[in-house]
Amino acid sequence: MNAQAPVNLQGNHACALGAIAAGCAFYAGYPITPSSEIAERMARELPKAGGVFIQMEDEIASMAAVVGASMGGARAMTATSGPGFSLKQENIGLAAMMEAPCVIVNVMRGGPSTGMPTRPAQADIMQARWGSHGDRPVIALCPASVQEAYAETIRAFALAERLRTPVVLLMDEVIGHMVETVTLTPPTEEEKGARKWADEPKEGFLPYRITEDGVPPFPRPGDGYRAHATGLTHDENGFPTQDPARVAVVMRRLLGKIDKHRDIIDKWECVDCEDAEVVVTAVGISARAARAAVRAAREKGVKAGLFRPVTLWPFPEEAFRAATAQARAIVVPEMNAGQMVLEVQRLARDEQAVVPVNRFDGEPIAPREILASIEEALT
Amino acid sequence: MNERPAPEKLPRDGSFDIRDWLRLELMPHFMCPGCGHGIALRALLWALDELRVNKDDLAVVSGIGCSGRTAAYIDANTFHVTHGRPLAFATGLKLARPDLTVVVISGDGDSLAIGGNHFLHACRRNLDMTLILLNNEIYGMTGGQVSPTTTAERFTTTTPFGNNEPVFDACEVAQAAGATFVGREATLQTPNLKDLLKDAIAHHGFSVVEVISDCTEIYGRKNDLGNSPEMILAQKREMRPEAYRNTVDTPFRPNPFNTGVLARRDRPEYLDVYRARTEALRRQGGGK
Ligand SMILES: Cc1ncc(C[n+]2csc(CCOP(=O)(O)OP(=O)(O)O)c2C)c(N)n1
Ligand code: SF4
Ligand SMILES: [Mg+2]
């Protein structure tokens, strides 16, 4: 396959090919609709790329194996859907604490529990942010097209590796399963991002050293550092500490890592926001519907715009505030009972009306539903 | 991590010095006086020393528990992960880095309760790594709750009327699940344990060594099992070395344990098979 020629591809396959292009060398997973195509594609592609695929006994094991491979130095990934995402949460916390770069894909389906396995949803927006226990750095990316599923998977690896942190790729079932024409441009080295490998004297090496950019250099096993990594709260030397003064310092570094790199983490799209009196804020497939609704509103003379976070967590606050500077109302369509809207309410000014549009019946939100809310919001 | 002589340069005259393998800056360690886990740790380091394993290429993965805390003291690449998941973590680590020698230290709760599923599947897969299961019949770290290996009728903080559940025999389970090397030894016989661990680590495939360990402070006290030497001597009464298996036919206690190598099978190693299969199919132009 000529990588540059346009091809027809499903979102899940684009995600798998993005991972391969990003240099992923390890995949561990457990089958679950609507994500299984990612595992199936990785099972084929990884051996060809010199990597290893393994289907583990459950999602807990998959996530643990991914953290293990990552701590061995490999670019590692797993994919799942809501129920499996819940099982992965404990070891996502471990990855955050050990600072093991890894990518976790969640192709969202209807929930709670087994819910509607084959129907789309966007109901894990808050699970992606708050799913694991404790305070921890969180990055979640949210593609809205097959092309973006490819590109954002690559970016997910780059952010994970550069910042030594787990990165979640949140897709909804529609993006995962729809087929679009895409161009699989191989990423540059810059786009792939590099892990900061430890390359300093072994004597006195601190595996969790507080560095200027907040990212400690990674000691590759075998390179002679013989470091300790633990899920226990640890000091710069990697060993457990419960000394309040030290814990405050090292946890501030860990949590602050995200803030220090907002320039490369934040990503969003604005359509017609400059003069918009209503800004629709949406992600994934809902943003596609919102785009159509905004276009229809403009045709009717309504000043509407679209703000689409591509990086969902941390929420691109600054860009959101700029995009909604002129807005009297913000419409938030999402396929859940109201999750991202909480973040929007937090950021909106008092005089701005925040109008949720929710569906949780397994059907995507139609442009006309959003259009109706846009018109209502201005009356 | 201070510079120490490379393992090859250490005297090889039988004078194993545990200090060569410990992170001495972390001493004193956290273990209670007389805890069996420390004896097991010594045997492991002795085995690694005699095998001349290069510390730089050694990865020790451990779970959560008093057993899991031992890994941090080893001067190697050490990973202290989540409760019950060290085998799953180690599976990823070994698959990504087959060049590393991977040893997993776990407890009876860690590997047989919360991590039971991973234990079964690790035995089935036969990836080249070694599990050291420190069985003290109790959840030591959390203050002495019942475990899947607590002897019947014994008291724990969650069986105040005596344990009413039957026990798991880890070695039987391991064999049934397909482990290619299974052995058991008690801390009483440290040199034997060291030799068993050497065989297990040298084995190309998944090896399980169950160590009969003692939680003196919690389990011992709660059940009036005496002090540490008394508990260790009790192992002697309860043990049935594999060599005597067919000659001693009366069990000494409800769950007598056999020691030594209990199973050794010839079965292809996981990654060897994966590489061979994927290579062959790739050359033919892909899989199915
Ligand atoms: C998910 C989770 N559940 C429970 C615990 C609490 N916990 C810590 S250690 C432990 C039991 C350890 O027992 P065992 O594996 O036998 O190790 P030992 O301390 O006896 O060596 C438990 C239940 C935990 N850390 N994580
Ligand atoms: S509580 Fe028991 S198992 Fe834990 S260190 Fe003390 S004696 Fe050992
Ligand atoms: Mg125990």
Describe the protein in words:
The complex is a heterodimer of chains A (379) and B (288). With 379 residues, chain A is an alpha/beta fold. Chain A has two domains: 186 residues, 3-Layer(aba) Sandwich (Rossmann fold), CATH 3.40.50; 108 residues, 3-Layer(aba) Sandwich (Rossmann fold), CATH 3.40.50. Helices cover 40% and strands 20% of the residues of chain A. Chain A is built from 14 helices and 16 strands. In chain A, the strands form three sheets. In chain A, strands 2, 3, 4, 5, 6, 7, 8 and 14 form an eight-stranded mixed β-sheet that branches. Chain A has a five-stranded mixed β-sheet with strand order 11-13-12-15-16, with helices on both faces. A two-stranded antiparallel sheet of chain A has the order 1-9. In chain A, helix 1 runs parallel beside helix 6. With 288 residues, chain B is α/β, with parallel strands linked by helices. Chain B has a single domain, classed as Thiamin diphosphate (ThDP)-binding fold, Pyr/PP domains (Rossmann fold, 3-Layer(aba) Sandwich). Chain B contains ten helices and eight strands. Chain B has an eight-stranded mixed β-sheet, sandwiched between helices. In chain B, helix 2 links the parallel strand 1 and strand 2. The site of thiamine diphosphate has 17 residues of chain B, from helix 2 and helix 4.
